[in-house]
Backbone:
């Protein structure tokens, strides 16, 4: 199986299956001298970890990460730092229940990749989906924790803004609220509503989708390239690479189609009179989502992605088996009634990895800072 690596300068290769002994990744391209311990990575894995509420799968995985390589305790710096060599990360699987899947080993679950895996490879690991399982995304979250350390001053946050047809009220958006409820929802009132709403979905043995918004702030202007290395193109690919994601938009996204040119184009002014102190342009809106022509503007980068309902549900569905027979299937086991909840930290990680990759590409091509037209003329 190829294509287990993403990124160029900051490269992440993941390995492992849902019911194998462990999952992990190798992060290559991280600059040397960055302080890094397991304690820097673990909080992000804890955010994604299953079994933390009744609204996610009850698979009890501690998701404790181990750093196997790529760091060294530098006595001169008084810290463990990256060496510039590949960083190996390992997370043990400790709570597999493979027997939950024995009844469906030859059946194709509607909405899952069972059929397409069989067509492509001639075999598949039916235990929790094997390599296709969202279990693999824990390794991406670990890699994202390292990526956050590469871009100075960058912060990456995400929130669940819609569950099923139910949307938050953006006027009640509060980033501090995201960590106070099990849905990572920025609207406290809507989060309370989601409790009863998702309980009903869960008790029916069904599932529901969600929309996640990811925001990266403190990203310098000039990252990306105008043709085949577009920052927004790589972001879209990264988000679409998350399990169960079926749609991605940046900035105004699909909504831009309903705007006029006057409404959509983000007007600009030079920073003065309280708008800033360095004389650089200030955008008066952000319909572009922080990216123009594939290159970052210095504004917050805003990406949203839609996660489909979890395909493993108790409701009996019509399907076929690998021998050509027609049958029905009901998926037992432990599954998320809304897999979009735990997609929040995954979206953060993918944003961090892509921006870190472009930051290193930029530094390799033109140096520490991009050329800027309002700077003093070049000699």
Residues:
């Amino acid at each position: 199986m190829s294509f287990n690596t993403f990124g160029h300068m900051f490269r992440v290769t993941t390995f492992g299956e849902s019911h194998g002994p462990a999952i992990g990744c190798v992060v290559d391209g991280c600059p040397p001298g960055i302080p890094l311990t397991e304690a820097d990575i673990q909080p992000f894995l804890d955010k994604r970890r299953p079994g933390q509420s009744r609204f996610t799968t009850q698979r009890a995985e501690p998701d404790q990460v181990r750093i196997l390589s790529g760091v060294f305790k530098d006595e001169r710096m008084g810290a463990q730092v990256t060496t510039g060599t590949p960083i190996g990360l390992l997370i043990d699987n400790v709570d597999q229940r493979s027997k939950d899947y024995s009844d469906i080993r030859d059946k194709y679950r509607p909405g899952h990749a069972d059929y397409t895996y069989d067509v492509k490879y001639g075999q598949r690991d039916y235990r929790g989906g094997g390599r296709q399982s969202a279990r693999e995304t824990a390794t991406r979250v670990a890699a994202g924790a390292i990526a956050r350390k590469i871009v100075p001053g960058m912060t990456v946050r995400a929130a669940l803004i819609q569950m099923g047809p139910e949307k938050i009220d953006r006027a009640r958006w509060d980033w501090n609220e995201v960590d106070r409820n099990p849905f990572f929802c920025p609207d406290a009132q809507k989060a309370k509503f989601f409790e009863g709403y998702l309980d009903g979905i869960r008790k029916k043995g069904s599932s529901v989708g969600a929309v996640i918004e990811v925001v990266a702030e403190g990203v310098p202007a000039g990252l990306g390239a105008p043709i085949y290395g577009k920052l927004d193109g790589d972001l879209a690919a990264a988000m679409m690479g998350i399990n169960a994601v079926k749609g991605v938009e940046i900035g105004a996204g699909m909504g831009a189609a309903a705007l006029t040119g006057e409404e959509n184009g983000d007007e600009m002014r030079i920073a003065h009179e309280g708008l800033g102190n360095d004389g650089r342009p200030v955008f008066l809106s952000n319909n572009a989502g922080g990216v123009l022509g594939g290159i970052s503007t210095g504004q917050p980068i805003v990406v949203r992605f839609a996660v489909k309902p979890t395909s493993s549900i108790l409701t009996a569905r019509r399907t076929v088996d690998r021998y050509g027979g027609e049958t029905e299937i009901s998926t037992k086991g432990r599954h998320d009634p809304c897999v979009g909840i735990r997609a929040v930290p995954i979206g953060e990680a993918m944003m961090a990895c892509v921006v870190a990759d472009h930051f290193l590409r930029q530094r390799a091509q033109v140096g520490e800072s991009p050329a800027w037209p309002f700077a003093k003329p070049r000699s």
